[in-house]
Amino acid sequence: MKHFPIFMALEGRRVVLSGGGDAALAKLRLLLKTEAKISVVAAEAAPEIRNWASSGKLTLIPRAMEPGDALCASLFYAANEDDAEDARVAKLAHLDGALVNVVDNLEDSQFITPAIVDRDPVTVAIGTEGAAPVLARSIKKSLEEQLSPNLGLMARVGKAFRKHVEALPFGAKRRTFWSDYYSTDIGDAEVAQTRLEDLLDTHLHAPAREGWVDLVGAGPGDPELLTLKARKALDNADVVIYDRLVAPEILELARREAVMLSAGKEGFGPSVTQDAINEMIVSHARGGAHVVRLKSGDPTVFGRLDEEIEACEAAGVAWTIVPGITSASAAVAALGQSLTKRGRNSGVRFITGHDTKGFADHDWRALAAKGEVAAIYMGKKSARFFQGRLLMHGADPATPVTVIENASRPTQRILTTRLSELEPELTNAKFDGPALVFLGLAPRAALQLADQFDQQEAAI
Ligand code: SAH
Q1: 406 pLDDT exceeds 80?
Q2: Mean of the pLDDT values across residues 244-269?
Q3: What residues contact 66, with CB distance under 8 A and at least 6 apart?
Q4: What spacing in Å lies between the alpha carbon of 327 and ligand 1's midpoint?
Q5: How buried is residue 231: exposed, middle or buried, by Cβ count under 10 Å (0-12/13-18/19+)?
């Protein structure tokens, strides 16, 4: 972030602008919404600017800028639409000690003015650091459509009512009150006032809220692969207890006031014990909090979900499961393949390379059969173990094996190999992110190449 967004109190402060044409007009229309003392320095000013000056909205100095014109100004705009003149006046204003903006010149500006959605006192400022003005305009357009024109009025009436709401305990209760108030669009100050009074009465007499737990799948990492339900749970959470594999971009989506607690677990070997995690979940829910237990992928797949559910049940805490996209789904999508395919494999196994006892044992003979497909979770450290077991039980050494690291994330990497070469190739690839191993699947592109090669060989 090269520019730090702030809202500046301009009441009674000087803002000076040099220029009298279209660029000056555009900036002045915005500045006139504030309570700043505005001076315009322009040898030639558009009629609109002269009108504003004669009606006392701003002061017009009808000449070119001179040293000292921007003294005591908080902000200065160079808006002459002439590079040389803008550079000259910017230098003068700089010497006068003002913060300088040169219109349409990011490089020489000390601050920039964002695109604004105005629902005074609610103001949304959108900036792209000059990277994409078109994007800023389209975000502005969609926010303009989303935010009711009555929002400003509702916020003003709400603000005056704030002290009454202190009758509700701080935290979730007050938040629910305000979100109830803002959920109905009201365009009349009196109606808004009555609604606030009725709502406060209802909330004051509502029975104490019980906490509950959402066991939520965060998906494989790409925030766009979150379900809408997961998104909603994160929006409303009081407490988020997350595993280490949950992508930081997803944690960013949690409600800003939510308490974020790391459960520190990776695929195996928890650094916070499961009992301690259960205790964390239950104690927060019992305190009345909406707890989101956020797990990577789908919480029902190798997530120790049942232990957490049992802890909730034992404590009489309500819970729900919000399914997520498991990493096998994201990984197979990255290969352009499907998990099952007519004539190839009519079933697929989800297995773990590791369990509480160490390397996990499976029905190796069945897995070694031709055409078998398995998604192996936590399979990095155990790769040499299951490679050996499968070969020992008669698997074809040429069986395709594909390892997908960081599926769905920008750092995604794919290793395409064969069972006989899986190790040491996997170790040599030095994958340090979460990785999923597919036994019996190769990327579609690799298969097409192999087909072409076979056809060429047959032709020779
Ligand atoms: N509940 C999770 C799995 C938890 S076990 C799910 O449904 O995906 C942890 C294992 O999941 C990791 O060791 C790795 O094998 C796999 N995994 C999780 N996220 C992954 C990702 N983005 N890419 C590849 N594998 C991932």
Answers
A1: yes
A2: 83
A3: 92
A4: 5
A5: middle
Q: Is any atom of ligand 1 closer than 6 Å to the C-beta of 298?
A: yes
Of ligand 1's listed atoms, the one at least distance from the Cα of 247 is: 22
Which whole number is the average pLDDT over 82-102? 97
Q: How far is the CA of 408 from the centre of ligand 1 (A)?
A: 11
Q: Mean pLDDT, to the nearest integer, of 5-13?
A: 95
Of 55, 65, 72, nearest to 87 by C-alpha is: 65
Residue 129 vs residues 1, 20, 98, 140, 379: alpha-carbon distances, Å: 8, 26, 21, 15, 43
| Residue to substitute in 296, 348, 439 for testing ligand 1 pocket (most ligand atoms within 8 angstroms of CB) | 296
Ligand 1 contact, 312 CB (< 6 A): no
212 Cα to the center of ligand 1, angstroms: 26
**What are the tens digits of pLDDT across the range 166-219?**
998 877 788 889 999 998 899 899 999 999 999 999 999 987 778 999 999 999
15 lines ligand 1 (CB under 6 A): no
Q: How many beta carbons lie within 10 A of that of residue 361, not counting itself?
A: 11
Distance between the two ends of the chain, CA-based, in angstroms? 60
CA 422 to CA 251: how far, in whole Å?
34
On whether the CB atoms of residues 317 and 237 are closer than 8 A, the answer is: no
How far apart, in whole angstroms, are the C-alpha atoms of residue 401 and residue 416? 6
Would the pLDDT of 449 be above 70?
A: no
Which tens digits make up the pLDDT trace of 100-119?
999 999 999 999 999 999 99
- Report d(CA 8, CA 331) in Å as an integer: 47
pLDDT band at 442 (very low <50, low <70, confident <90, very high): very high
Binning the chain into helix, strand and coil, the percentages to the nearest 5 are 40, 20, 40
Residue nearest to atom 24 of ligand 1 (CA): 435
Is the confidence at residue 268, as pLDDT, over 90?
no
Note the pTM of the prediction, 2 decimals: 0.67
Ligand 1 contacts CB of residue 115 (under 6 A): no
Place of tokens 């899986």: 422
**Centre of ligand 1 from the C-alpha of residue 326, in Å:** 7
Over range 326-335, report the average pLDDT: 97
Q: What is the dihedral of CA 146, 149, 151, 157, to 10 degrees?
A: -170
Beta bridge partners of 318: 212
Ligand 1 contacts CB of residue 404 (under 6 A): yes
Q: Which residues are catalytic?
A: 243, 265
For residue 353 and ligand 1, the question of a CB distance below 6 A is answered with no
Identify whether the C-beta of residue 139 lies closer than 8 Å to the C-beta of residue 124.
Answer: no
